[in-house]
Design brief:
Elements: H1 8-38, H2 45-66, H3 91-102, H4 108-116, H5 121-146, H6 170-194, H7 203-222, H8 229-233, H9 241-261, H10 268-286, H11 292-330
């Protein structure tokens, strides 16, 4: 039994809302996770929301203005909008929501963009793994130099934990680093959310899309990051404001550098995991004795969940493309922007 064709405008809007909630709930946690963790009982959530939402408004409007109606900052230049939409196009964002509930960090870049452009899947995967490698190679020597200087070394089994007060200067530094990172992440990942919409949006649809994104951010803050926040919470010193500031600054610099290197989309998730892996290895090296076994279990657990998410992403990304052929054969007149007769 074949489902009746949905009105494409409403389907595109539903797919966008699901993608917004999915991407914000999974990818954005990796961006805002250290900030949320270190400010859990220090800053009112309404103030955090005002800060995060204000920057979202700024980046979205600026990208829309620079891109002549396209808010994706040029990341979708090589990926055309879907020629037609069917019920199967809801599978990718629903899969992200399911994997987020499991606590798995998902490459929404691979899952959501490859669902629209399956031929780009191989390139997206290779760029994602390359981003992991670059972040790991950069973070490992950097944290070997920075650990104990810009952030505290974790206590070893034979030492007493330090209780030195944190300078108040770290508060504005953290907010600046988080704002910088949030901007860089939005420039990269807004493409994942807007991929199902036309490449030129009028003011009305832009405002509605902004409201959907702000709602997704509010859900994230009310849920204190959700299940994926455990990826951040389990890392060394994740509640320390200094550690969170350094993570955000380095992560933002990596996204900025990789974005300048190539304007094509890449997985910010894998860049984040590479950064955390290099950081944990460096901190383990600086400790005496080195807790290699615990660090290995921690990092392998991250890679296991991320790898499973990547495999599921590739599998599901191909399904809409294949089933869309059947949908289009049954309903050839269904195109974006025109309701079914």
């Amino acid at each position: 039994m074949t489902l009746p064709p949905p009105p494409s405008t409403w389907l595109a809007a539903l797919a966008f809302v699901l993608a917004a909630v999915a991407v914000i709930g999974n990818d954005a946690v990796q961006t805002l996770g250290p900030f949320l963790s270190s400010n859990r009982d220090r800053t009112p959530r309404w103030l955090q929301g005002l800060f995060i939402g204000g920057l979202l408004l700024l980046v979205l409007v600026l990208g829309w203005w620079r891109g002549d109606g396209d808010p994706s900052w040029g990341r979708l230049a090589s990926i055309p909008p879907p020629a037609r939409l069917g019920w199967t196009d809801l599978l990718p964002p629903l899969a992200v929501l399911a994997l987020t509930a499991w606590g798995a960090p998902v490459s929404t870049t691979v899952l959501l963009l490859a669902a629209v452009a399956p031929m780009a899947g191989r390139d997206l995967v290779l760029r994602s793994l390359a981003g992991y490698g670059v972040a790991l190679v950069v973070a490992l020597p950097l944290y070997l130099l920075l650990a104990g200087r810009l952030e505290p070394l974790p206590p070893s089994a034979s030492s007493e934990p330090t209780t030195a007060p944190v300078s108040p200067w770290w508060i504005p530094l953290q907010w600046l680093a988080t704002g910088w990172l949030w901007i860089q992440w939005l420039i990269q990942d807004l493409a994942n959310i807007y991929v199902v919409l036309p490449r030129r949006l009028a003011v009305g649809p832009l405002v509605l899309s902004l409201l959907a994104l702000l709602l997704a951010v509010a859900v994230l803050l009310l849920g204190r990051g959700g299940p994926v926040q455990a990826i951040v919470e389990g890392k060394t010193n994740s509640h320390d404001r200094r550690s969170a500031t350094v993570i955000d600054l380095v992560y933002g610099l990596l996204l900025f550098g990789l974005g300048r290197w190539s304007p094509r989309p890449l997985s910010t998730t894998w860049v984040f995991l590479g950064l955390l892996a290099g950081r944990e290895l460096a901190l383990s090296w600086r400790q005496r004795p080195q807790p290699w076994r615990a660090t290995g279990r921690l990092l392998s657990g991250d890679l296991l969940k991320a790898g499973a998410g990547l495999a599921i992403s590739l599998g599901l990304a191909l399904v809409p493309g294949r089933l869309a052929v059947a949908d289009s054969a049954a309903h050839p007149g269904m195109l974006p922007g025109s309701d079914a007769a």
